[in-house]
Amino acid sequence: MDVHVVVAPVFGTNCCVVVADAVRDDGRRDCVVVDAGAGTADRVAQLVADRSLVPRAVLATHGHVDHTWDAAELCARFDVPLRLHAADAYRIDDPFGTILSGGDDAAATSVSSALAQALGDFGRDPRDYRVPATVEPFEGSTTEIVAGDVTLHAVHAPGHTEGSTLYLVDGSDGGPGVVLSGDVLFAGGVGRTDLPGADVDAMLATLRDVVRALDPALGVVPGHGPTTTVRRELAANPFLPA
Questions:
Q1: Which residue of 18, 110, 118, 242 is most buried, as measured by CB atoms within 10 A?
Q2: In the chain, which residue ranges form alpha helices assigned H by DSSP?
Q3: pTM, rounded to two decimals
Q4: Mind listing the pLDDT tens digit for each residue in 99-127?
């Protein structure tokens, strides 16, 4: 499968369009959209039109609003559900409230304020957030996500949030695949654990038992920032536990 990245203008979220290898009878290809950050809907729709794609689902690596802001728009345009791990489903109904901890946590308040400012700079108001019409949570430590001709392997990777998920994408023509790592793993870094719902011990276990078990040949498209490879991060990322 091919992965096309559309970078959101708000918080630089990497929105990924994963395209099936198989060609449908109508000459089009199925796809799914992962992490519909604010300001990605029109560009994703244009990519879909230009490449004759058929969206079959919108997925989220986790429930933070910078990864789900345009999910409702894309779900409505393409009449598809939003899918994410059940442990993060509660965040979809109250995205800003689930970032804050009653306004007392300095880190959470700072993130929420910065996000609201970034949305404002892009001409969006936090009150404009919409909940997708259909949300289909999935459960389990490993789940096969089948959406038309697209099949992804979802691996529960808690720590940054309770429901953080890695999506493993098979490579095309037998080539190396890609892991969409959300805010679990970045190039040279890992996800923060100072926001509501985060858990330092869970993150350490995820990094040690899940990330270190990934195939080193996999490419990595993180939730923000440049792409990397599992091999590079295993060798040089200073935040990965031994």
A1: 18
A2: 41-50, 71-78, 90-93, 106-121, 200-205, 230-236
A3: 0.94
A4: 765 445 666 677 778 877 888 888 878 78
